[in-house]
Amino acid sequence: MNDGTITLPWLVIRQDDNGNRYRVGRYATRAEAQKIADSLDDRGHKQLYWVERIGQNGQNGSAAAN
Asked: Hey, is 30 helix, strand or coil?
């Protein structure tokens, strides 16, 4: 992209005990997103955290479960 925008295609998603899903943040690299998901997961709460990539058309792509 040459229009000066920053591409943040990697999402960290949290799912709570009731099945509700929330976007925690967007990141430039999968490694950065995974580091955040791992640190949140290490807190020992019952929430589930994972990393997803946003597809080219703005849709969530394949999920990589944590």
From this structure: helix
